[in-house]
């Protein structure tokens, strides 16, 4: 089958699939594989909102293969994108997210109609970043990857930079235990105590992810969000989007931003196959037996990336895959002088590697460790923790 026919089939399939969800109408919107009547009108679309008008016109132009489809689809996409930013993400109605998802698919279809495959791919990929996993988006990105073909990333080499900062002197070591049983781990969880676990990570990722070319082969075309700047408390800190392959070119040179607290594995399922959810995640009143209730995040970047002292509302198993990280912990009841703004209330003002005791007296309960490949640090819910990458580093956190 030639590429033009494949593109037509992709567009037809996408329009058919989104018609089943009816995001803009609450009903099944107009769709038919054949062109609509000359004077197009959808009797099911009764809500005269700008979005519905744009949706109707975009469908019409796509079905008639009109070059005007791109301008209409772009306007619809921008309109729904703005809607996502009117409320905090967790308060956005599911209907608004679905409308943005469908607008993303329609824009990508219009870009395909204009023979701009790379733009269509990036549109869908950023859509996945914005709304998370969605079956139509995942199916579409897979089809587009097949059209784009494989790229050779062997020029990235087979190892990340070995250059590392000196390991800090550990004066208040966290307890260490070798691959405890689930019952033994339960005692530490019940006592709300951190523990550094050795010998419990035996995943394919521990070998495969040492190779930047392998990661690029799985995810090189994909677009991900990265942090740019020292850390998120700094005024100069910002965020951006970057293709994984281009970003890895910087990382292997010891540069690049920080891919932090991102569910890379829902975005790139190929990498999810290389790791396992630890059994320890299921001892805390979690009745799931397949990892569905465990939140996975990737933390990936060059030497020097920092997460300032903060706490999270989950139990956390922090697994180190590539490189080393220095971690400092304080108990939940420690006076660590959190910021007084709502956005940073879970983050301390203290620079834990250069504590000004005259400004921040009374810091107690400190623990420290260096986490190496194959090790996991259990960080109980509410414990304050600071993280600095001593080398190029890739970690996975399991929140449960």
From TrEMBL:
GO terms for molecular function: histone H3K36 demethylase activity; metal ion binding. InterPro entries: Cupin_8, JmjC_dom. It is found in: Nucleus. Its cofactor is Fe(2+). SUPFAM superfamilies: Clavaminate synthase-like (SSF51197). GO terms for cellular component: nucleus. Its main location: nucleus. It comes from the Eukaryota. Pfam families: Cupin_8 (PF13621). SMART domains: JmjC. Residues 257-400 form the JmjC domain. Signal peptide: none annotated. Keywords: Iron, Metal-binding, Nucleus, Oxidoreductase. This is JmjC domain-containing protein. It comes from Spizellomyces punctatus (strain DAOM BR117).
């Amino acid at each position: 089958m030639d590429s033009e026919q494949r593109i037509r089939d992709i567009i037809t399939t996408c329009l058919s699939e989104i018609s089943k969800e009816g995001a803009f109408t609450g009903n099944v919107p107009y769709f038919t594989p054949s062109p609509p009547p000359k004077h197009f009108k959808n009797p099911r679309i009764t809500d005269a909102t700008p979005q519905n008008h744009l949706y109707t016109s975009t469908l019409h132009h796509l079905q008639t293969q009109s070059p005007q489809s791109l301008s209409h689809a772009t306007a619809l996409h921008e309109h729904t994108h703005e809607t996502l930013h009117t409320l905090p993400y967790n308060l956005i109605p599911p209907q608004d997210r679905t409308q943005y998802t469908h607008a993303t698919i329609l824009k990508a279809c219009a870009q395909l109609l204009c023979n701009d495959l790379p733009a269509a791919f990036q549109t869908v990929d950023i859509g996945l970043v914005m709304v998370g996993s969605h079956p139509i988006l995942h199916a579409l990105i897979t089809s587009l990857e097949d059209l784009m073909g494989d790229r050779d990333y062997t020029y990235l080499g087979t190892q990340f930079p070995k250059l590392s900062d000196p390991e800090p002197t550990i004066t208040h070591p966290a307890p260490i235990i070798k691959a405890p049983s689930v019952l033994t781990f339960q005692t530490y969880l019940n006592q709300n105590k951190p523990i550094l676990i050795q010998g419990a990570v035996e995943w394919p990722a521990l070998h495969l992810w040492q190779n930047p070319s392998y990661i690029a082969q799985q995810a090189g075309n994909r677009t991900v969000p990265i942090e740019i700047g020292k850390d998120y408390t700094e005024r100069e800190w910002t965020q951006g989007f970057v293709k994984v392959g281009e970003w890895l070119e910087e990382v292997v040179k010891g540069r690049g931003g920080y891919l932090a607290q991102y569910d890379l594995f829902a975005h790139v399922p190929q990498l999810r196959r290389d790791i396992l959810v630890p059994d320890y995640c299921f001892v805390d009143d979690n009745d799931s037996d397949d990892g569905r209730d465990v939140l996975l995040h990737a933390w990936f970047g060059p030497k020097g990336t920092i997460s300032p002292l903060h706490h999270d509302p989950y139990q956390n198993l922090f697994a180190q895959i590539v490189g080393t990280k220095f971690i400092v912990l304080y108990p939940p009841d420690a006076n660590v002088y959190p910021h007084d703004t709502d956005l940073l209330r879970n983050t301390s003002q203290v620079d834990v590697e250069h504590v000004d005791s005259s400004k921040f007296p009374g810091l107690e309960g400190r623990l420290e460790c260096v986490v190496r490949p194959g090790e996991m640090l259990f960080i109980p819910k509410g414990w304050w923790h600071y993280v600095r990458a001593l080398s190029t580093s890739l970690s996975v956190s399991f929140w449960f």
